[in-house]
């Protein structure tokens, strides 16, 4: 495993008891409409929803104390948003039912709520999205989910005494370039501190950030090529209990891309320059030799050395070299 | 982590704004981590209400400061205090230039005085367990830094663990010295000389720091300690000392001279909780002082590579140790395989790190703005916390306010809503603390 990222927490992870502690599953669904149009013909939001609902129902049926939360990341109309639970709406029965009537009440309650809220979200989307700004990001939705998890796993048990574990599933279709690096990283480390594993179900382009998220938090990363088997992927990978994960071969892609993003150009890079004061990463040497984030002035001599291109020295017979040329 | 002591109520800037109906005078004050302004008042904090030191003060019990309201109920006040307690965790948010790549030597006093039992179970045991916690926190917050540990015992300095970036080694070493009996005299000079030697080879872009936990009130040195101090100053080694007993003049001088005239890095603990707080302060990278910046020609820019991790079915040799291993990390510069990170590529000299190592310290850089408490009103725009959906208490109308029965209610004293200055969303106090302490993102600003 990654030697440093996990070491501060490794010690505490040993005695995770495999008891019947109920757990919370928080699902973050990427609803970036601009990215969804790119997946036209591959998968649609409706299909995804079907699979997610099956997953949620399965999770609820595993333990009567289990809970779920569903969030959407972004849309043109509003930022991150809870689809379930909804604190304001206590009148769910009044709306016309979109579901068949003979299903388990708890399932029905959750499913209906999610479908309705998603419908509202889509109804509010503008029809001509040309000059509209996208609101919200995966990191924002993850921050909300983590706050909610914090409330349910750390604050509430203080008074009620009911312990709860939590895990998160991120279903993403967007490219890394649409993400903000720092908020995203902050989410990963908070999740690690809170021992919340982040499982990732990725469609569309591969994501280095989300790979890191699942790696740091001991989650599963799945790049899904065949979307028709989505529910199969979700259930097989996600129902591996966290306590069993260290000893099982996970369906995670084994090669892991740890590239970072440049703070100035937002490009994803594998070799870059790091400011020694703030540890920000740049793909190019910043202009005027001043760090754009922390305004530190860099040592000119050091920068000059970094700017030097490697020189290819022509092969020569050593003995024939004259003194002046020899200095390399 | 920040255990509070029942006998003390930590009064912080934030609380004084809260309209709590108890007399705040005479309550022992404590400094709070990362509150730069309060750091400078560390010594003032020792002073009690009458201007003398706090131990000269009349002893205040925690139950003395609470007064009943008119209805004889404590509930409103207690909830107020609870929120105030939570608020005190909030920090100063001004971004500083900090030396984030650090090299530190932790010096622990293990002389005879450390077996005293004024701290429970005794000074040595508490110091060791606090030091273990410190090591873990240090590497959590300073992922690419180095630490070494030195013990002062029997008049000499003993190396406990070499300067390295692996917290497990340090924790192991600290555990092993639990078996030792604190004996002999401490020697500041010997300890500083050894720490100086350990810090000699640190790279130029790294800070050089010594953190000392000092229990005794004297030192027995083989030579002149002032020459040692001179060389510490010359080598730009910054010293922080935590005293366990009382102020010692030489310690104060060392801290003052090695920190560009600023002696606030020397502090004496008030109680066990304060001890922990002082150690936590040391976890945050030091701000680079103005005078130090003038001296420098500039900071270093480091070229670094972010490798890819591979896994292999058949083991291959690593370039760093020539050992056969499964998998490893591939240098993006020359495609050779190394087995451990962070490291310097043995083939092309590129520094190899994981971006996740660096990202841990970014919240020092982009601190989140403090949330403002929403002023009391008859009605509020929000009914639930934006991020955790907890229901907020409703506003109180004028007629309800005049009813004295309602004075005990929480909503009489506070709106319980905290607003982000950027996105104007409302949060509950638990989320406020969580967002600033753990997450460092505003969930509402994720747009
Ligand atoms: Zn910088
Ligand atoms: Zn090796
Ligand atoms: Zn290399
Ligand atoms: Zn909240
Ligand atoms: Zn905000």
UniProtKB/TrEMBL annotation, chain A:
Pfam families: Tfb4 (PF03850)
Keywords: DNA damage, DNA repair, Metal-binding, Nucleus, Transcription, Transcription regulation, Zinc, Zinc-finger
Protein family according to the UniProt entry: Belongs to the TFB4 family.
Any Gene Ontology CC annotation: nucleotide-excision repair factor 3 complex
Organism annotation: Komagataella phaffii (strain GS115 / ATCC 20864)
Cited Gene3D superfamilies: von Willebrand factor, type A domain
Protein name, as recorded: General transcription and DNA repair factor IIH subunit TFB4
Subunit structure: Component of the 7-subunit TFIIH core complex composed of XPB/SSL2, XPD/RAD3, SSL1, TFB1, TFB2, TFB4 and TFB5, which is active in NER. The core complex associates with the 3-subunit CTD-kinase module TFIIK composed of CCL1, KIN28 and TFB3 to form the 10-subunit holoenzyme (holo-TFIIH) active in transcription.
A GO molecular-function descriptor: zinc ion binding
Cell compartment(s), UniProt: Nucleus
Annotated GO biological process: nucleotide-excision repair; regulation of DNA-templated transcription; transcription initiation at RNA polymerase II promoter
Superkingdom: Eukaryota
Role of this protein: Component of the general transcription and DNA repair factor IIH (TFIIH) core complex, which is involved in general and transcription-coupled nucleotide excision repair (NER) of damaged DNA and, when complexed to TFIIK, in RNA transcription by RNA polymerase II. In NER, TFIIH acts by opening DNA around the lesion to allow the excision of the damaged oligonucleotide and its replacement by a new DNA fragment. In transcription, TFIIH has an essential role in transcription initiation.
Entry annotated with the keyword Zinc: yes
Automatic annotation (TrEMBL), chain B:
CDD domains associated with the record: vWA_transcription_factor_IIH_type (cd01453)
InterPro entries: C1-like_sf, Ssl1-like, TFIIH_C1-like_dom, TFIIH_SSL1/p44, VWF_A, vWFA_dom_sf, Znf_C2H2_type, Znf_RING/FYVE/PHD
GO molecular function, one term: zinc ion binding
One Pfam family this sequence matches: Ssl1
Gene Ontology cellular-component annotations: nucleotide-excision repair factor 3 complex; transcription factor TFIIH core complex; transcription factor TFIIH holo complex
Domain of life: Eukaryota
Positions annotated as zinc finger (C4-type): 331-348
Subcellular location: Nucleus
SMART domains: C1_4, VWA
Domain VWFA: 103-283
Alphabetically ordered keywords of this record: DNA damage, DNA repair, Metal-binding, Nucleus, Transcription, Transcription regulation, Zinc, Zinc-finger
Major subcellular location class: nucleus
GO BP term, example: nucleotide-excision repair
NCBIfam families for this protein: ssl1
Stated role: Component of the general transcription and DNA repair factor IIH (TFIIH) core complex, which is involved in general and transcription-coupled nucleotide excision repair (NER) of damaged DNA and, when complexed to TFIIK, in RNA transcription by RNA polymerase II.
Family: Belongs to the GTF2H2 family.
Name used for this protein in its record: General transcription and DNA repair factor IIH
């Amino acid at each position: 495993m990654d030697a440093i990222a996990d070491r501060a927490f490794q010690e505490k992870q040993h005695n995770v008891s495999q008891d019947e502690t109920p757990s919370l599953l928080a699902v973050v669904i990427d609803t970036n409409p601009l990215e969804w149009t790119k997946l036209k013909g591959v998968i649609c939001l409706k299909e995804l929803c079907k699979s997610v609902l099956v997953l949620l129902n399965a999770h609820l049926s595993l333990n009567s104390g289990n809970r779920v939360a569903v969030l959407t990341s972004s849309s043109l109309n509003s930022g991150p948003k809870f689809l379930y639970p909804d604190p304001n709406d206590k009148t769910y029965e009044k709306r016309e039912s979109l579901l068949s009537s003979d299903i388990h009440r708890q399932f029905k309650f959750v499913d209906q709520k999610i479908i309705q809220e998603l419908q509202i979200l889509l109804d509010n989307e503008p029809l001509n999205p040309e000059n509209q700004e996208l609101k919200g990001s995966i990191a924002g939705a993850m921050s909300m989910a983590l706050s909610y998890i914090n409330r349910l796993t750390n604050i509430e048990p203080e008074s009620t005494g009911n312990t709860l574990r939590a895990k998160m599933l991120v279903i993403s279709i967007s490219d890394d370039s649409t993400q903000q690096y720092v908020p995203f990283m902050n989410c990963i480390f908070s999740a690690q501190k809170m021992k919340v594993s982040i499982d990732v179900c990725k469609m569309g382009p591969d994501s280095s950030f989300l790979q890191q998220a699942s790696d740091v938090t001991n989650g599963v990363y799945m790049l899904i090529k065949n979307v028709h088997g989505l529910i199969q992927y979700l259930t097989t990978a996600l129902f591996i209990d966290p306590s069993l994960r260290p000893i099982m071969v996970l369906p995670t892609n084994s090669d892991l891309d740890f590239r970072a993003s440049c703070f100035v150009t937002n490009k994803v890079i594998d070799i870059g320059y790091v400011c020694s004061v703030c540890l920000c990463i740049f793909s190019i040497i910043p202009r005027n030799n001043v760090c754009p984030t922390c305004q530190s002035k860099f040592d000119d001599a050091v920068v000059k050395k970094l700017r030097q291109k490697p020189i290819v020295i022509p092969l020569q017979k050593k003995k024939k070299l004259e003194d002046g040329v020899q200095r390399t | 982590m920040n255990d509070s002591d029942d006998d003390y109520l930590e009064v912080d800037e934030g609380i004084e704004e809260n309209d709590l109906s108890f007399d705040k005078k005479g309550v022992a004050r404590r400094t709070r981590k990362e509150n730069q302004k309060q750091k400078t008042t560390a010594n003032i904090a020792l002073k009690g209400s009458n201007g003398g030191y706090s131990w000269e003060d009349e002893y205040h019990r925690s139950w003395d400061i609470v007064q009943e309201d008119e209805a004889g109920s404590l509930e409103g006040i207690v909830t107020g205090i609870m929120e105030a307690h939570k608020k005190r965790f909030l920090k100063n948010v001004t971004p500083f230039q900090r030396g984030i790549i650090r090299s530190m030597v932790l010096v622990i006093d293990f002389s005879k005085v450390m077996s005293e039992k004024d701290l429970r179970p005794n000074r040595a045991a508490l110091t060791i367990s606090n030091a273990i916690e410190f090591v873990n926190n240090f590497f959590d917050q300073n992922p690419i830094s180095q630490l070494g540990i030195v013990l002062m015992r029997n008049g000499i300095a003993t190396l406990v663990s070499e300067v390295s970036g692996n917290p497990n080694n340090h924790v192991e070493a600290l555990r092993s010295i639990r078996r030792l009996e604190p004996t002999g005299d401490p020697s500041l000079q010997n300890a500083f000389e050894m720490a100086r030697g350990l810090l000699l080879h640190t790279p130029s872009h790294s800070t050089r720091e010594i953190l000392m936990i000092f229990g005794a009130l004297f030192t027995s040195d083989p030579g002149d300690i002032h020459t040692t101090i001179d060389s510490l100053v010359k080598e730009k080694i910054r010293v922080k000392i935590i005293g366990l007993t009382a102020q010692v003049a030489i310690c104060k001088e060392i801290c003052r001279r090695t920190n560009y005239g600023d002696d606030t890095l020397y502090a004496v603990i008030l109680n066990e909780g304060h001890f922990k707080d002082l150690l936590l302060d040391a976890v945050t990278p030091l701000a680079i002082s103005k005078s130090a910046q003038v001296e420098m020609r500039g900071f270093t820019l480091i070229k670094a590579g972010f490798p890819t991790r591979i896994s292999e079915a058949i083991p291959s040799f690593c370039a760093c140790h020539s050992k056969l291993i499964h998998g490893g990390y591939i240098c993006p510069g020359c495609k050779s395989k190394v087995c451990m990170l962070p490291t310097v590529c043995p083939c092309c000299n590129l520094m190899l790190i994981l971006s996740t190592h660096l990202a841990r310290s970014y919240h020092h850089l982009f601190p989140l703005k403090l949330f403002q408490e929403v002023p009391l009103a008859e009605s509020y725009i929000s009914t639930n916390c934006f991020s955790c959906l907890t229901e907020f208490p409703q506003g109180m109308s004028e007629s309800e306010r005049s009813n004295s029965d309602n004075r005990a209610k929480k909503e009489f004293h506070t709106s319980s809503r905290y607003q982000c200055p950027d996105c104007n969303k409302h949060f509950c106090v638990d989320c406020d603390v969580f967002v600033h302490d753990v997450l460092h993102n505003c969930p509402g600003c994720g747009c």
